[in-house]
Amino acid sequence: MTASSISTESNTVSHGVLRERAARWLPQIVLTPSLLATFLYVFLFSAWTIWISLSNSSLLPDYKFVGFKHYGELWQNHRWTIAYTNLFIFGTLYVTGTAVIGLALAIIIDQRVRAEALWRTIYLYPVAVSFVVTGTVWRWIFNPASGIEAMVHGWGWAGFHFDWIASRDMAIYTVVITGIWNHAGFCMVLFLAGLRSVDQDLIKAAQIDGASMARIYRRIIIPSIRPIIIAALVVLLQFAIKTFDLVQALTTGGPGISTQVPAIYVYDLMFQRGQLAEGAAGAIMILLALAAVLVPYGLWRNYQRRREVARV
Amino acid sequence: MSEVAAYDPMAAVAGWRYRRARIGVYVILIAVAIYAILPLLVIILNSFRDLDDIAHRGLIAIPLAFSLDHWGVTWNKFCVSGGCNGIAPFFYNSLEMTIPATIISTIIGAINGYILSMWRFRGSEILFGAITLGVFMPGQMVLLPWAITLGSLGLTNTIGGLVLIHCIQGLSFTTLFCRNYYVGIPEDLIKAARIDGAGFWRIFRKIVLPLSPPILIVTVIWQFTGIWNDFLIGLVFSSGSGQPITAALIGLATAGTSVHEYNVESAAVLIGALPPLLIYFFGGRYFLRGLTQGAIK
Fold first, then answer.
1. DSSP state for residue A110 in the 8-state scheme
2. Counting Cβ atoms within 10 Å, is residue A47 exposed (0-12), middle (13-18) or buried (19+)?
């Protein structure tokens, strides 16, 4: 009687302990599967691709180590040269163009214009449209036979030419125009939120001192939204480096190979030409380009945060 | 003018300048609005126009007549991406991919965010940092490993495979969104619940979930538009009739020199753009919040 009661008691105790332990570890247990999946995706997959880039893989993975051979081949490749040159041209113009138009729109809309919500809705909707749709439609608009050139011819100006998309030298600028279309409104929204969070007393004080509005923007408002501007530039640079679908739909990298960008070339190497190792090497170059943007930005943000904490 | 100038020259100049500036403001607003709205207008209007009309007057013109016929052709008769069943099968593929992937990744993200904000343990901040690295991963970095993994799981060219990829790749975003939101819930609320004996799931259900709708809506919108609009994964890991709509639509661009049925194609493009656009127009505030949160991580 006593023995059995003791044993049941100890049973419930040990059961209770187990339960308590499980309860204590429950968060970690629940977190584990998705954590594992994310870690496989981020770290194992990255390592895997790095390994493939150093291997002898061509049509199929072949894990024989050959060192940096494929990196050398990639950098000697004419198409790759064109691709990253285009990335610089496109990246510079797209990022500055989007940021400048975005800032101009934000400042203008901040002047208490009529129907502000309507303007904002019109400018921002492109960000909801996929790059494939964007590229397809702009391809039609840039097409001399059906788009803007045809429209102007219809007005009676027969000598008008606008055939950038068919020109090896100019096609990259159609990609810039289309890219800006996609994200100018997005920048506007970010900047507008910033403009409206600027300390109003500061602006009033400057007005009382007789500063012109242009000067107030230049000296007070824009400097105080600098963190937002930098964040927006980083996001845009990220988009530029990853640009793939937009170019694929707009120009398919053409005419010829004149609008190749790294992301398209890497995809081609991997899935069209069966050069897995060289493709993987290109993918790592894209990753490094992203890191070159994001790591300094991350460090800068950390530095800023620490300085703020120190100030307080 | 001279009379007014004689009266108060400064005010007159200032008034004139002000008016000129106002006109300038609206001229710029309208010019950019035309740039912004032109593509949408082009596909909407051309989806109602006859082919003859388009051939004669180009794509940028006011329709002479409206016809709804092309929409029917687009939906289930149009030949695209190797089949002639219209855009409908691809539209359904996209739905079958996007809805489960959105729901699953949002639920897991909410639970992860809950743990990483309210059940912190040693190292949890580092884990959170590592998870958010996934936000920056370029697609090309993981294509080959995914291809090999999907192959060994037998999921190549299945909707299930696409759902799996979007779920795992989306977890970084959903976890980030939810965690950053839950950090703002007062700790005392959770402490009080714990003292009352509420456990892990009970606190989640009774306290955290009821406070979550704003962030869940933001997360769902973000995931839905992102997955619906994604192209690379659909392109690489599906083919033929198993493609999502973005991958099928690229066929319109790469069709080359064949004659374009611009009206039918316009309708197809519009259908492909419609779900995210509807979300944008009707979920505006939440869409915006997701956008700014996603940007300034």
1. T
2. exposed
List chain A residues with CB under 8 Å of B111. Answer: 30-31, 34
**Residue A28, token pair as written in the block:** 């970690």
The structure tokens listed for A63 are 């894990």
Q: What is the pLDDT of residues A35-91, one digit of tens each?
A: 899 999 999 999 999 999 988 887 777 777 888 888 988 899 899 999 999 999 999
Is A109 in contact with A188 (CB distance < 8 Å)? yes
> How close, in Å, is residue A8 to chain B by CA atoms?
25
CB-based contacts of B125: which residues, under 8 Å, 6+ apart?
Answer: none
d(CA B209, CA B181): 12
Q: Which of B249, B254, B280 sits opposite A128 (nearest CB)?
A: B280
- Which CA distances in Å does B46 have to A125, A246, B258, B270? 19, 22, 18, 10
Element (H, E) at B205: none
- Asked if the peptide bond before residue A255 counts as cis, ω within 30 degrees of 0, the response is yes
Q: Do A151 and B61 touch (CB under 8 A)?
A: yes
Residue A301, C-beta contacts closer than 8 angstroms, at least 6 positions apart: none
Could you tell me if B233 lies within 8 Å of chain A, comparing CB atoms? Answer: no
Q: Please state, in angstroms and rounded to a whole number, the distance separating the CA atoms of residues B275 and B132.
A: 27
The radius of gyration computed from the CA coordinates of chain B, to the nearest angstrom, equals 26
Residue B160: count of CB within 10 angstroms of its CB:
14
Residue A17 to chain B, least CA–CA distance (Å): 15
Residue B251 · residue B80 · CB < 8 Å: yes
Residue A251: what residue type?
T
pTM of the model: 0.88
Mutate to test the interface with B, among A34, A259, A294 (most CBs of B within 10 A): A34
Q: In 3D, which of A41, A116, A302 has the Cα closest to residue B130?
A: A41
Distance CA B272, CA B256 (A): 20
DSSP string across A221-240:
IHHHTHHHHHHHHHHHHHHH
Helix A171-195 and helix B9-46: axis angle, to 10°?
A: 130
pLDDT digits (tens, 9 = 90+) for A142-174: 988 888 988 988 888 888 889 898 888 999 999
Q: How far is residue B287's CA from residue B297's CA, in Å, rounded to a whole number?
A: 16
